[in-house]
Amino acid sequence: MEHAVTAEAPRVAGVRISHPERVLDPTGVTKLALARYYEGIAPWMLPHVVGRPLTLVRWAEGAQTEKGGVYLRHARAWGPRALTRVSIREKTKVGEYLVVESLEALVSLAQMDILEIHTWNATIDDLEHPDRVVFDLDPGPGVGWDAIANAARHVRRALEDEGLESSVKTTGGKGLHVIAPLARDRGWDECLAFSRDVVRRIVREDPARYVLTMSKAARPGRIFIDYLRNARANTSVAAYSTRARPNAPVSMPIAWDEIDDVDPAAFTMDAVRKKTWARKSKRSRR
């Protein structure tokens, strides 16, 4: 009797990728392609995720599922061994979180069908002192890219007034994140109050363009500047993470001087790899 030959599952960075051909809806990319993307982008992505508790979006059933993405804040028993598990005190209980500390762990997230990687603003060696603030610029209906780019520059100037240098990245959606590092000398409450005060000043300066409230009724034609990402246990999508959207757009760090010419939808996995390697080649020639 003949037996069917089963192909051995491919390995990426030492991680066995089961069902490599699975299409991770709604992105249209396969599980193997996602794993190889994270392997290739790891030198740039790992500094943004190592040591940070994660919230993850998993496309649980693969292609054509009706369930869609599932948010995972706490670890599950079946999580790959390469991922670190950390117990963190929450308001009413202790939760176990997953943490990436290696290339193998990053690729293991692809093995878990993870399409989005979201991180805390603190690392596990000092969880009660955030090391950055994140301002999420979320445009309402009718807001063009020029206005979003100008909003990012407005936040940048406001942070400069506070003595903070900032960077900017796409969100993988329609908006931008402006991020400023902190010295880890403030607690969560102080960090949240600081970021709220920055946004309040910006909104007072130009209430026709910016809004502080999440209310959808107040959003058309204006940009919601979300400072709530800076509360304890809240997260923002990690730099270089894919998003659970068609073509798997990536949250891409960009230079301030290129912000006006950006098309966020153009940052697919292939485009990000090419752009990142081009930057590396340019630096190596200097």
Short description:
This protein is α+β, with helices and mostly antiparallel strands. It is 28% helix and 22% strand.
Overview of this structure, please?
- It is a single chain.
- The chain has 5 helices and 16 strands.
- It is an alpha+beta fold.
- A hairpin with a 4-residue loop joins strand 7 (84-89) and strand 8.
- The termini are far apart.
Q: Major sheet: order of its strands?
A: 13-14-10-12-11-16
Q: Structural class per helix/strand content? A: alpha+beta
What is the percent of helical residues? 25-40%
Distance between the termini: 64 Å
| Residues in β-strands, percent | 15-25%
Radius of gyration equals: 20 Å
Total strands: 16
Summarize model confidence as the mean pLDDT.
91
**Residue ranges: pLDDT <50 for 5 or more in a row?**
1-5
Individual helix count: 5
Estimate the global geometry from the Cα principal axes: globular
Instruction: Please summarize the sheet with the most strands.
Output: 6 strands, mixed
